[in-house]
Amino acid sequence: MSIRWIQNPNRCADEYLNGIEDFIEFARRHNPGATRIRYPCRRCNNTLWETIENVGFHLVRNGMIETYSIWNLHGEQLDHASSSNATRMDSVEPIVDPNDQVMDIIQDAFPFASTNINHEREDDVPTPIDSAEFEQYEKLLKNANQELYPGLQRLYMSMHTATDMRWHKEKRVDDDVMRHPADGEAWKEFDRTFPEFAADP
Length: 201
Description:
Elements: H1 14-30, E1 36-38, E2 49-51, H2 52-62, H3 80-83, H4 98-109, H5 131-144, H6 159-165, H7 167-170, H8 185-193, H9 195-198
Antiparallel strand pairs: 1-2
Helix pairs in contact: 1-2
């Protein structure tokens, strides 16, 4: 299998993108049933695990380790005759990325903040998802996309109801008598704090 694409500096080139697809297909073939694999990007150096689908995005963004020519961590068998000539991964120094130094500084400054939200280490255990909670969440999302009650959107279609819906903005009398919540101090303070919101009747 040709790995010449790994040295291609243009990560948007068809050769590079096709090489990533070949690598992912290779990893799928040699790791049947696996949902996560190590990703051999320059930044992570085969130390972190990610879903097979996300590995491709990671490799396009960071580039693949140029010395990772035998994909032994993804199922490729070492050829003993050529293994003496092959570069051992243990002896390869990781490529220094200036972004890593910035991330180290950020992690030192904010030790409890997670900068690798989508990354999982080898020893991380996935959180089990309660199916009842998941169904409730799906129901909430579905309900959020529905109108509050039937006919709500038609309130502004009639000239008379549209006028009533904008009364608090257009016909309010400011005589220190509470006729509507818009006459209250809280409403007035909200209008002063968020003028762009208050401008919309």
